[in-house]
Amino acid sequence: MKIGLLGTGHIGRTxxxxxxxxxxxxxxxxxxxxxxxxxxxxxxxxxAATAEEALSDVDVAILSIPFNALPxxxxxxxxxxxxxxxxxxxxxxxxxxxxxxxxxxxxxxGHPVVKAWNAIGSHSFAINGKPxxxxxxxxxxxAGDQVDHRAVAMGLxxxxxxxxxxxxxxxxxxxxxxxxxxxxxxxxxxxxxxxLAAAERHRLPKRRDLSFEIAMExxxxxxxxxxxxxxxxxxxxxx
Length: 239
Prior knowledge:
Layout: E1 2-6, H1 10-21, E2 25-29, H2 39-42, E3 47-48, H3 51-54, E4 60-63, H4 70-77, E5 85-88, H5 94-97, H6 102-109, E6 114-115, H7 122-127, E7 139-144, H8 147-159, E8 163-166, H9 189-198, H10 204-219, H11 227-238
Parallel strand pairs: 1-2, 1-4, 2-3, 4-5, 5-6, 7-8
Antiparallel strand pairs: 6-7
């Protein structure tokens, strides 16, 4: 497939590497220009591009950027043909993004949106992929209103080394957002369904804030937690 990817943060850079390694034709762009994209992002065959170039003549467009940056790319996205599958990997954080959510994103972009790769931690995504059928393979939920677009995204999730779990329509994607039981808890396919069903929307803000408070208290401001610590805290609080 021809894939255009905007964003070279922790998730975006891994997507570029994994999807290119799986044989897809990947063009990747960031907000600073193609010359600033690091060599390791491109080492499996992804090509550096401008944002406009990355979203031109593609089957799939992937946005791996902060929620509050979506309006900046909306003019390019609104020009995509209807059959292009648009995937958003981002998560909503009120301190950074203001009062916006997934359905708002679809309205801003003027194109149906599929949510995928937003419920996996960046470290786990980078190193914990396994071949299809491997024991203990981690599952990633995929939500979107159009069944055919959701199916394409699920196929790409499998290509990146994870089991894709059909999480239904975009209005239910809050179940895979920060502080939900399915969020960054590295669940298997069989565990994912019960975790999504167990999510309680009114509890998510408090759990999300608690996670940040614990990290600040234990580690200090600006010190990122390591992957094992992150997983333990996510499972203790989110589940």
